[in-house]
Amino acid sequence: MQSEIKPAFLAAGNLPSVLRRALAGRVYDTVRHPALHGPESFHPDMQMFSAGDGRMVCCPELYPHYNGVLPARGLRCGSTPLAADYPRNIAYNALRVGSRLFCLRAHTDPVILRMAEDCGWTVVDVKQGYANCSAAPVGTDALITADPSIASAARGQGLDVLRIAPGHIRLDGYPYGFIGGCCGLVSERSLYVFGSFAAHPDGARIQAFLDKHGVSTVFAAAQPLSDYGSLLRVT
Description:
alpha/beta
């Protein structure tokens, strides 16, 4: 009888302990990417793409490290090295929501696009290169975002979309962070959040939207939302 695979997650290596203590399961830390700026150099969603089911694509310069550390059953090496400036830093910042892949296609790593083709996902081309940072998936048929490009494209795909006000999310060194970067699905129906919705002007709307779709929330701490890069499911 095969033993159950316990969940494992990839979190930012600089994520404070107060924001990780409520996270159940195995947690692996990112290492700093040498080319990326400031805090985003630790963000998981900058360094690799996760399909949410163990299939992942990692930037080639960090692949040897993560291949020896992560238990992901489908970790692939990407073909695009990352560089500091946009759009050369967003090759792996694609977002899968059910059978759709949201990304800035022209600057998305080809290995991810081949995975999408092999899996039969619809590639949804958006203007926002930070697709994973900018949107939080809610199950497989809904998402939350402040980005107009992603919101419009998602509605065009038949997804239920909650459009929220930009800002009100901490990101050191930047004016504000993004909703996708302050959370991550730890199961199909459970969202782990770095902080709480209490200080966000749309906090009540966000919670109501999650309740509507049957997604529970696990708040890491009673403090404003903080962007440390999306929490990625590894197994």
